[in-house]
Design a protein that fits this description.
The chain is an all-alpha fold. It has helices at residues 23-27, 43-52, 57-60, 66-73, 90-97, 102-105, 114-123, 138-147, 162-171, 174-177, 186-195, 210-219, 225-228, 234-254. Among the domains are: 1-104, Leucine-rich Repeat Variant (Alpha Horseshoe); 197-255, no CATH class. It contains 14 helices and no strands.
Length: 261
């Protein structure tokens, strides 16, 4: 049986339903101690409360407990949210960013907290994202790489973070993709190998990482397979030989011949 965590308020004291200002809700069964409760310090329990009673979220935006303000921001009337861009707590500002109009979101592009800038990057599009391509936090740039227009991705293809370049390699237009074949990270080159045209894969035939060469062997034009059939890695050789045998068999079939004739 799952143990239910004790119902504690934001100051660590046991939740006291008798002192709650929403006694009428308790009497009607519209809230439940330890599950649906505005006094509980757990976000999930407060969220259930505000989900059921969104009309009470507005007044909670001024509560001293940051998490209550953050949870309430997701349910409160949107006209009450602009002042939250100056809230002292980053969780509250990030929660506000999720719902505020873009003109308010832009004001937080240089917020001191990365989690807020991640929320900002998740909302902005197009040219409004461009100032964040040089953000000092790598994960902000990861989110930017996921959302930036494909034609703008080359500005991030040399990013210092492998995680950013991985996202770029997944989406960058094909005319730029081959330039990433010399990336220092094998994980990036592996994605490049999976996306390049078969006729372009010879640039990765002798890659230092066997996983990249295996991906090449799976897709490269058959004319290059004999070279990979001598690869030092058994799995690469096996894939190259398998495809080479299939290619020869298909060629014989097209010519009306049979290898067993």
């Amino acid at each position: 049986m799952t143990k239910v965590e004790e119902a504690l308020d934001w100051q660590g004291a046991p939740v006291d339903c008798q002192t709650c200002p929403h006694q009428d809700l308790l009497a009607d069964g519209a809230c439940e101690r330890g599950r649906t409760c505005i006094q509980d310090r757990r976000a999930s329990r407060m969220d259930r409360f505000f989900r059921a009673h969104p009309d009470l979220a507005n007044e909670a935006l001024r509560h001293p407990y940051f998490l209550r303000r953050a949870v309430a921001a997701r349910r409160a009337n949107i006209f009450h949210l602009p002042r939250l861009v100056e809230d002292d707590d980053p969780e509250v500002r990030a929660a506000a960013v999720e719902r505020l109009p873009e003109r308010f979101v832009i004001r937080l592009r240089q917020d001191p907290e990365p989690r807020v800038r991640v929320a900002v990057a998740s909302r902005l599009e197009g040219s409004e994202l461009m100032p964040l391509i040089a953000d000092p936090d790598y994960y902000v740039r990861v989110v930017v790489a996921r959302r930036l227009e494909e034609q703008s991705l080359p500005v991030l293809m040399r990013d210092v973070s492998v995680d950013v370049r991985l996202e770029v390699a997944k989406r960058i237009p094909h005319e730029w993709l081959i330039a990433m074949a010399w990336d220092t990270a094998p994980e990036v080159r592996l994605i490049v190998a999976s996306r390049l045209e078969p006729s372009q894969l010879q640039v990765l035939m002798h890659d230092a990482d066997w996983r990249v060469r295996h991906a090449v062997a799976c897709h490269i034009d058959p004319d290059y397979l004999p070279q990979l059939a001598d690869d030092p890695e058994p799995d690469v050789r096996a894939e190259a030989c398998r495809r080479l045998d299939d290619h020869i068999a298909h060629a014989l079939d097209r010519n009306g011949d049979s290898p067993n004739a």
